[in-house]
Amino acid sequence: MITLGRGSVADYVAHLEACDGLFPTKLSERVDLKAYAAKLHDRATSFELWEDGRLVGLLSAYMDADVAFISHVCVLPEAPRGSGHTLLNALFDEMRRTAKHVVRLHVEADNARAIAFYERHGFIEIGRLNRDVIMERA
């Protein structure tokens, strides 16, 4: 079930900890997980996927005036197949509802699986920053 911002900071921390090793560079090597969870919870629009009371998928985006910026996407292996697609479509629906026309994100350049996922959903590379690829869908 997809919910919008129902989870607590503790739910987000537990989810980020479970996702930590799923990224090419551990998330905990890039951010303080507790502070990041609080920031996502308090400032981002977050789409949550729950399975048996556990947060198994999370997409968090900052909704600026005319651009949505995806800050975090992680779907745990035990989530139902297609969960990433479902979360991304929930964001696209919210963007249509709020008249946002552009969505951007940064993804690690060596995360080929994530890059391919975003390309399948209409994102293109628009630049690079350090070890990240900047992608956009307009």
TrEMBL record:
Domain named N-acetyltransferase: residues: 2-138
Matches recorded under Gene3D superfamilies: 3.40.630.30
Pfam families for the chain: Acetyltransf_1
Signal peptide residues on this chain, from the entry's feature table: none
InterPro entries: Acyl_CoA_acyltransferase (IPR016181), Bact_Acetyltransf (IPR050832), GNAT_dom (IPR000182)
Keyword set includes Acyltransferase: yes
SUPFAM superfamilies: Acyl-CoA N-acyltransferases (Nat)
PROSITE patterns attached to this UniProt entry: GNAT
Superkingdom classification of source: Bacteria
Keywords linked to the UniProt accession: Acyltransferase, Transferase
Record protein name field: GNAT family N-acetyltransferase
Species the sequence originates in: Exiguobacterium alkaliphilum
